[in-house]
Amino acid sequence: MLKEQPWLNYGDYLDLELLQAVDEGRDVKDIIETVDEIKNMNPLDAKREVLAAAFLDRIQHLQIKKDYRFFEPSELETIKASRPALRPDLNVKLLSEHIEALSYDKIYGAWLGRCAGCLLGQPVEGWYRERINGLLKATGNYPVNYYISSDISGELRKKYDVSDEGGVYGSSIKNWINNVQHMPEDDDTNYTVMGLKILEQYGMAFTPEDVAECWLSNLPILHTCTAERIAYKNIINLIYPPHSASCRNPYREWIGAQIRGDFFGYITPGDPELGAELAWRDASISHVKNGIYGEMFIAAMLSAAALLNDPYKIIECGLSQIPEKSRLSEAVNDVLSWKELGLNWEQAIDRVHKLFDEKTGYHWCHTIPNAVIVCIALIYGEAELEKSIGIAVMAAFDTDCNGATAGSIVGMINGASGLSDKWIKPLNNKLKSGVDGFGLVEISDLARRTVDMAKKAKA
């Protein structure tokens, strides 16, 4: 029998929904008492779920405050109209002429970098910064210089509550480096594989409805989390995109879509606008507003990283594809100034922790603080894999997601040939996927298939 899960019970969404509604600029002062009344009801009372569901529906119709300074549409054409007027001009024709020579090494590097960053962050996912950095310092791994191991003294295991039991996605053990022989399954890599599945099955003209169908056909619901699980549940109940993203979904701006954007950048090298549009089609089934922008931002950065190696310029390409007056754009633009102001990477992370509370689940997994961390990792990591994924994980919040995204972008910049064996060899060129039809696959084969899709995108 399955345990009750908070993302399957409407009554457990209410605090998160309030935080989300406030961030969106909705006026919630008249409904706070209703939340407390519902929360205080017996969790086994069926009426509690009915009232909670009605409340979630009601809050979606609250007006945005007149003094709200952001403009955050979810529709593609309105997003495009809300982008910065001045956008970087990449020489797409130049890339098209050299795609045969350029694509494979870079795309293979992006896949490898994504896996390496994810594997570094996976065993400490959910840990707070003090605990992560305490373990790293105690084991001589701060700043990060290698994957994290559980092969440590009993004293340290007890102090930092390090265990090998309790794996994810059907694994019986946690994926410390001493416990793995390949990249184990993770949602951060499942969705990259899913991107390949979508393109191979539906082609470049795929729709949000195709994405929904592909999920239901190829990914078990318990291999999804938060916004994706809500969207999955909605679609099963015949609530289709885009309403599947907003219906009773307090996770609609969380990081789930942001971790799905990489593949759409892989197949559109040098074309951030197309990468962002493909990402929108994917994101819109489960996310709205900044949740969507996060995926578009990452896809556009990866498209740009095929041509550029300057993290600032790559970030600017990402910003060029999302609304200029969004919360995500404001937060990322703020980060771009921190190094010039004299902040080092640790001080930049300190500032993130002052702006966002890692001990609040809403902040811990929200798109914006995690996108900010990825940008810090890119800027201070200076396009080096070890430095970039290390900073991403040492910053805490969603460690495996941020390590994976930073690693993916740095891998694209450098190509597989430019990545250190220290980080790549432990993967043994293999990735375990939960997507139907893949299983344990060679990462190089995924890269070759991705290159085929990139060529079709440019055809």
Summarize the structure.
Helices cover 55% and strands 1% of the residues. The protein has 459 residues and is mainly alpha-helical.
Give a structural overview:
With 459 residues, the protein is mainly alpha-helical. The protein has 2 domains: 6-59, no CATH class; 76-123 and 183-458, ADP-ribosylglycohydrolase fold. It has 24 helices and 2 strands. The chain has helices spanning 14-23, 32-39, 46-59, 76-81, 92-97, 99-121, 129-138, 154-159, 187-202, 208-218, 226-236, 243-246, 262-266, 272-283, 289-305, 311-319, 327-335, 345-355, 361-364, 367-381, 385-394, 399-414, 421-424, 443-458, and strands spanning 430-432, 440-442. It has a two-stranded antiparallel sheet. α2 (32-39) runs antiparallel to α3 (46-59) and α20 (367-381) runs antiparallel to α21 (385-394). The longest helix has 23 residues, at 99-121. Residues 1-7 have low confidence and may be disordered. InterPro entries: Ribosyl_crysJ1 (IPR005502), Ribosyl_crysJ1_sf (IPR036705). Keywords: Hydrolase. Pfam families: ADP_ribosyl_GH (PF03747). This is ADP-ribosylglycohydrolase. It comes from Ruminiclostridium cellobioparum subsp. termitidis CT1112.
